[in-house]
Amino acid sequence: MDYGYQERIVALLKANKITNHELAEAIGKGKATIGRYLTKGPTRTYPSIEDLSLIASYFNVQPHWLCFGVGNQHTEPSELTKAASSSATMLSVYSRAEVSELLETGKAASKGSIPVPPEYKDCFAVLYPVGGSVSYKWDCVALVNRELEWINDDIVLARLPGNPHPDFFTLVKVGTTIHVWYGDDTSKNAIHQVQDDEIEILGVVRWGTWEKRI
After folding, report:
1. Class in CATH terms, 5-68
2. Which residues of 94-118 are buried (b: 16+ CB within 10 A; e: fewer)?
3. Which residue range or ranges hold the HTH cro/C1-type domain (predicted)?
4. What is the pLDDT of residue 1?
5. H/E element holding 105?
6. How many Cα atoms occupy the beta-carbon half-sphere of 196 within 13 Å?
7. Residues 22-67: tens digit of each pLDDT
8. Is 17 left (phi over 0), alpha (psi -120 to 50) or beta?
C-alpha cells in the first residue's frame, strides 16, 4: 500500500461532497478514526486493507486503485491482468511539480501508475492539464520521452526562461526563433518566442491516455 491513499480518499470526499462523519458511519467507524487515517501528524493511524476496501466499495471505485494507486478508479482487475499478460509496462504517474525531483534524483512521489504498451517503457508519465468542463471528468496522462529530438508541432515538456517549473508546450521553429504555445492549443497567438538556449526541453510527448473520473 502506498501512502497516496490519503490524497485519493480526500479527493473522493471532495468530489462527492461527503464529510468524514458520513464516511465513518458508512463503514462502521468513528469520525475520529477517519480523521486519524487522513492526518499526516503524530496522531495518524493506518487503515487496514479491509477498511480501505470498505471505503472503495462505498465510493464505487476499485480497491487496487484506492490502496495502491494502480490503474484508475474504474480499471477492472481483469484489465490489469490482461495488460500484464500482454507484456504491458507499468509506469508511475507524476504531477508536473514532481518532475524536477524525478529527473534530478530518479525518485519522486507518484500519483499512481498505469499500464502502457511496452514500446513506451523508456518514457515517464506526467499528468497533462486539461481545462473547462473536461477537467472535471477526465485526467490525461502524457508519456514523455527524454531521448527524442523535437520537431515542429511537437508537444514537449519544457521549462521557459524565468520559470523553474516545467509545463507542456507546443513548439514551432521558424528560422532561429521558437514560437511557443501553452499545451496543445495553437488556435491563439503564441505565448512566447525564444531561442534554442532559452528553453530547456525535458522530453517530447509521444503518447497519452485518458482516465475518466467519477
Report:
1. mainly alpha
2. bebebbeebbeeeebebbbbbbbee
3. 9-66
4. 47
5. helix 96-105
6. 6
7. 999 999 998 899 999 998 878 888 888 888 899 999 999 988 888 8
8. left
Cell 525531483 belongs to 101
Whether the predicted model's global pTM rises above the 0.85 cut: no
Name the residue type at position 129. P
Q: Which amino acid is at 151?
A: I
Domain ranges of the chain: 5-68, 155-206
Measuring CA to CA, which residue among 30, 39, 35 is closest to residue 3? 39
Instruction: Give the phi and the psi of residue 28 in degrees, each rounded to 5.
Output: 75, 30
Look-up of cell digits 511496452: 118
b/e code 53-74 from CB counts within 10 Å (16+ = b): bbbbeebebbbbbbbbbbbbbe
- First and final C-alpha spacing in the chain: 22
- What is the b/e burial string over 192-208, where b = at least 16 CB atoms within 10 angstroms of the residue's CB? eebeeeebebbbbbeee
* Number of neighbours of residue 181 by Cβ within 10 angstroms: 20
- Count how many Cα atoms sit within 13 Å of the Cα of residue 129 in the half-sphere of its side chain: 13
